[in-house]
Design brief:
2 copies of one chain form a homodimer.
Chain A lengths: L11 E4 L1 H5 L9 H12 L5 E6 L12 H12 L4 E6 L2 H9 L4 E7 L2 H8 L3 H14 L4 E7 L3 E2 L3 E2 L2 H13 L4 E6 L6 H15 L5 E4 L6 H10 L4 E4 L19 H10 L8 H13 L23
Parallel strand pairs in A: 1-2, 1-10, 2-3, 3-4, 4-5, 5-8, 8-9
Antiparallel strand pairs in A: 6-7
Helix pairs in contact in A: 2-3, 8-9
């Protein structure tokens, strides 16, 4: 880039720590602790939060209290912060619908290998399941997350054609939003840009959300690349928690505080109060013993006086 | 960037862990340990290493063995890996010349406040000292590092005019190379690009080296931005060690392994064997107890099968 690309004026950050972050914690986090952290995070200015996932408690015991967590969230934040529940199948949808989540986020992988590891289904079986979910959702919004949209931990690079296949079917089924996920964080900016170019060419300005992991430190470089291409919605997890239990090598999500810091310094509005996120993250660490992996929360001096813009 | 920028075919990575990394370690690292780690790193394919610094042992006790370390390096690697010694003043230059380093790296800050904290001199006094060093260097090469070229921990954003002032004087004094340092890692890609544009406008294609810290996780995003503007030389520290003792808030350097990984995935040749760097870093951690801060060295699964390109 001989000249720096023009960036969106504002971006949406979706807080996914309570789902993607918590699911990576081995010891069960007591339900009251989950709710306390969620309340802190919901007050940072974010507009949308992935609150929990309705999955088999055998597969992911950490999410066994999904209904209770969602009920507590709705009691306090309904109408102020949009709630999302991740679901991998019809059974999950039933749970999410019963809990009255604002959105369901149906996850299906572009890669056969990862979809099988994640859901014990072929991609085609998951897509058929997605269509059933779309049919019974009523007024609940449906997001479809394309996992391993860039690379798969088992199969390596993922052909963009496989991503288009899932996106096409999601749009045909009437999805209200689509997320493209770098599930294991191996996409480099050049590779990411190549797939996103294919996506742009086919779907124009459709407002995709990107879900980036920071396994190899490339999350912010990838965010920058996507911003420069006009993408303006990103998942992020406070504290950089996260990782896929069925994707070997996956590490934490891009940290909310790192993303907000870079975006705001560049004049891209997030609507999020960075100091409130940092306070929540430090509490997650000190009061609840969660292992924090963000850059910002690791600095000793905080932000005062250090920001060049 | 609507289209991804074209990147250089290859980049130079300068290994600065033995200087910038070690100086951030509080407990004295025994000289034999330093030499053992340096030998490991010198065998990774790098062409240039900042081996030590000739500074007041009162100010930085960790570097008290500079002469011994440089002698050991030259005995083994002379003619194969170029040796650099950092110096802050004339006295340091005398030490570096006596030790027969291939290059001296004279550091002066663009920001008055940081220069005073770092060297107890005004910028003008440091520039005059630099000119004296240039006069007595003989066949030894002289690099000038512009510290706080983007932001200062005390004064905030640094006016590019202050950077040009130092660069002008360095070139007039006959410097053989110039490094621009984001000493505290607060530069965001947009801010970095703005200063680098001013630099490009004045000095054309002069091959500056960039020295980036990863305090806020923006090192790779900044590297990507600089690569896209044609900059092709970067300092990096194995394990992400580093930090300026006189810059509050500074954290580790961009990690060699993280930079090499991203560059090589994007098809930018570094000449460095990533697995050898990782082996050295894991040994720095397990055998010598150094605290590692890189992304790559924190992954459990290594790299096999995870790279999309």
């Amino acid at each position: 880039m001989k000249t720096f690309p023009s960036l969106p004026k504002s971006v949406e950050i979706v807080e996914v720590c309570p789902r993607d972050g918590f699911q990576s914690v081995k010891e069960f986090i007591p339900t009251e602790t989950k709710i306390a952290i969620i309340d802190e995070l919901a007050g940072t200015g974010i507009k949308t939060m992935e609150v929990t996932s309705f999955v088999s408690p055998k597969a992911i015991p950490q999410m066994a209290d999904a209904a209770e967590v969602m009920a507590a969230f709705r009691a306090k934040w309904k109408g102020r912060v949009t709630s999302v529940a991740l679901i991998p199948n019809l059974r999950g949808a039933e749970g999410a619908l019963a809990a009255e989540a604002d959105w369901m986020n149906f996850v299906v992988s572009a890669s056969e290998d990862h979809n099988m590891a994640n859901t014990k289904r072929t991609v085609e079986e998951s897509l058929a399941e997605m269509e059933k979910v779309a049919g019974l959702r009523g007024s609940t919004k449906l997001r479809v997350s394309v996992a391993t949209a860039f690379a798969c931990p088992f199969a390596g690079p993922v052909d963009p054609g496989k991503v288009l296949r899932v996106v096409d079917r999601a749009l045909e089924a009437g999805a209200d939003g689509i997320t493209l996920a770098d599930t294991i964080g191996t996409a480099d900016p050049k590779y990411l840009a190549a797939t996103l170019s294919v996506i742009r060419e086919k779907y124009g300005d459709y407002p995709f959300t990107l879900h980036l992991h920071d396994t190899y430190g490339m999350a912010l470089a990838n965010m920058l690349t996507a911003l420069g291409m006009g993408f303006a919605s990103f998942d992020a997890a406070a504290g950089g928690l996260g990782g896929c239990p069925f994707a070997p090598g996956a590490a934490g999500n891009a940290a909310t505080e790192d993303m907000v810091n870079m975006a705001e310094q560049m004049g891209v509005d997030t609507g999020i109060d960075l100091l409130k996120v940092l306070a929540a993250v430090r509490k997650m660490q000190s009061a609840y013993g969660l292992k924090i992996a963000s850059h910002l929360a690791s600095t000793k001096k905080g932000l005062e006086g250090n920001c060049p813009s």
